[in-house]
């Protein structure tokens, strides 16, 4: 009888210990394309999340008077909307307390409904299509400026600074690519410029001869591409082989450290102008520089583009949990929505009532000697 009682007590202790352990673990999901043509960008994002999780666990964070351990659940969406929604559902089923991602607007937008329906906060570090935060979902937040700001600023720059009199526009028909190209075209027209061609391809294409030959006949000063660097690189190579000397512009999707390699040395100095949907200057620049150095030391690779925004996304989410005294999404979501003046490595973070970043910056870049070179930070 005593032996049986001991077994019962022992089982109860184990059950309580298991429950306590489960309460101590906070699961944060991350989704990005870690396979496919832009896997280098997805891996960059995932490393940003891992860096934040490792730092939080090393520091020892207390939520509601209890020390917690953070666990990263990383999923690959291959930049594919269908795979993106499957990854989102998997994270919901795994009972994550928050999600950072996705990278692309085309995967972020459909996944956002799944997170919204489950009441799980989602912070995208890089999706720029305005629709993401205009669906009325209180769970959706964005860490960068949107396409209205990004595309519009680049369109104005093409006309006023690059003196583009005739401008050709190409997009990859994704939510991101078409969205930023549409806003670029509006920006060009608002600045008094002329769009002489509007063409499209897809995000898996490798041959642009027909499109570029048609564009060449219109003699553009500037060619804008709405899409990612995996397509922009080959497009630049083919522009060179066809003798198209126009300036090449694009949004944050092409504005990566990998672009010169993908273009295989065909980029002339100053030929490419792009914008990153974020940016710091002055005293804030040191924080970003320190992050890049720490990232390089930890992973032995350079930041591609959005790792710092992923890092800040995790930190802002956890900051809301700490302030709310709970990792329960229903309890910390209202606190996350009221984030105001959080000092991150990407700058000061505050959200508006749609979940968009207030006063989001853009950084304009060109390339010289195969390296990105900053032109200006604009707001």
From TrEMBL:
Pfam families given for it? Answer: Peripla_BP_6 (PF13458)
UniProt xrefs under CDD domains: PBP1_ABC_LIVBP-like
Which top-rank group of organisms is this from?
Bacteria
UniProt-listed Gene3D superfamilies: 3.40.50.2300
Q: Which InterPro entries match?
A: Leu-bd (IPR028081), Leu_Ile_Val-bd (IPR000709), Peripla_BP_I (IPR028082)
Task: Cite the Leucine-binding protein domain residue spans from the record.
Answer: 26-370
Note whether Transport occurs among the keywords.
yes
- Keyword Thylakoid annotated: no
- Identify the keywords attached in UniProt to this record, alphabetized: Amino-acid transport, Signal, Transport
The UniProt entry's sequence similarity note says: Belongs to the leucine-binding protein family.
Matching PANTHER family: AMINO ACID BINDING PROTEIN, LEU/ILE/VAL-BINDING ABC TRANSPORTER SUBUNIT
Name it: Branched-chain amino acid ABC transporter substrate-binding protein
Q: What is the lineage of its organism?
A: Bacteria, Pseudomonadati, Pseudomonadota, Betaproteobacteria, Burkholderiales
